[in-house]
Amino acid sequence: MSKFWERVFYLGCFITQGSSYISAYTYGLMHRLHHAHTDKPEDPHSPHNDPNPFLMMWTTRTNYFHLYIGKTDAPEKYKKNLPDWESFDRFAHNYITRLIWIGVYIAIYALLATAWWQWLFLPATIIMGSLQGMAVNWWAHKFGYENYSMANTSKNILPVDFLFWGEAYHNNHHKHPQRPNNASRWFEWDMGFQTMRMLHKLRIIRIRNTA
């Protein structure tokens, strides 16, 4: 996509992720390292390296922040063509901004909650991004089915991915990491890819590999 649309999507991520906002550049870098070292000690987030999903979340957080602040460096080949808006990340990616988002969530709950037990969902709202990451990166290396036999534990969580917009097809994605469509079999449906097709037709993005 063009630099203009890249920044539009940066703003969209900030609005929709809120207190869970993470740097697209840093996460893209971490994701590439995950593919390069899947289930090995160098993997930044693998259930193979931690005994439970909560420890994996903490390991993921630590590895992510070490990459973000530059404490951990990665080879240049993993940094190529990643989205980058450093000045915006400095604004969106700090504890003051996260606390403001939490205040917004509390105000929304105060306005809309009709019973005390609904407030129990507030912590999940605050860390929703981490929960989604745990679901994909833990479950998809623990439970599910495999279309492809590989030297890693990646699996497809759902036969019809109506929750994660194609990310549940983790085994397919590890087999074909450069393919925008994560669906492989006739019953699999990647809603994320269908959205990309629509954006491609609108000339907002350009899909280079449709194979």
From TrEMBL:
Keyword Membrane listed: yes
Molecular-function GO terms, alphabetical: oxidoreductase activity, acting on paired donors, with oxidation of a pair of donors resulting in the reduction of molecular oxygen to two molecules of water
Keywords: Fatty acid biosynthesis, Fatty acid metabolism, Iron, Lipid biosynthesis, Lipid metabolism, Membrane, Oxidoreductase, Transmembrane, Transmembrane helix
GO biological process, one term: fatty acid biosynthetic process
Family: Belongs to the fatty acid desaturase type 2 family.
EC number: 1.14.19.-
Topological type in the membrane: Multi-pass membrane protein
Cross-referenced Pfam families: FA_desaturase
Entry's Gene Ontology cellular component terms: membrane
Principal subcellular localisation of the protein: membrane
Protein's cellular compartments: Membrane
Lipid biosynthesis is among the record's keywords: yes
Residues covered by the Fatty acid desaturase domain: 13-181
Protein name as annotated: Fatty acid desaturase
Residue intervals passing through the bilayer: 95-113
